[in-house]
Amino acid sequence: MNVQSEAEWGDKVIPLLAKDLKESFPGIKGFSERNIKYMRRFAREYPGFEIGQQAVAQITWSHNILLLQKVKDPTQRLRYAEQAVENGRSRNMMVVHIERKLFEAQ
Predict the structure, then answer these.
(1) Mean pLDDT of all residues in the chain?
(2) pLDDT tens digit string along 68-91?
(3) Domain range for residue 86?
(4) 55 belongs to a structural domain
(5) What does the alpha-carbon distance between residue 6 and residue 47 come to, in Å, rounded to a whole number?
(6) How many helices (H) and strands (E) does the chain have?
(7) CA atoms within 13 A on the CB side of 39
(8) Considering the domain boundaries, does residue 91 fall inside one?
(9) Structural domain count of the chain
(10) Within this chain, do residues 65 and 33 fall inside the same structural domain, yes or no?
(11) How far is CA 91 from the centre of its chain?
(12) How far is residue 50's CA from residue 42's CA, in Å, rounded to a whole number?
């Protein structure tokens, strides 16, 4: 059952989901409303995602959030992720490369 598709306007599905996940998994962090929204966006941006195949699976969650926030084009986003994996780039170094638009220069 897709709770979101059956929800009425104003049902606040994400806050309820965040609360339920936190209660169901008290020892696990990362179920804030904000993080769930990022998870949802991640799933939309990478619909055919399979763990271990794409570069986005090999970088940290904070790298991925940065890419979702700063890089609109999916092709460019994937290229920055690939470069991060290939060169072992930190999140801070990725910020520098995005701000300097190094992908566009190549």
Answers:
(1) 83
(2) 999 999 889 988 999 999 988 899
(3) 60-106
(4) no
(5) 21
(6) 7, 0
(7) 10
(8) yes
(9) 2
(10) no
(11) 13
(12) 12
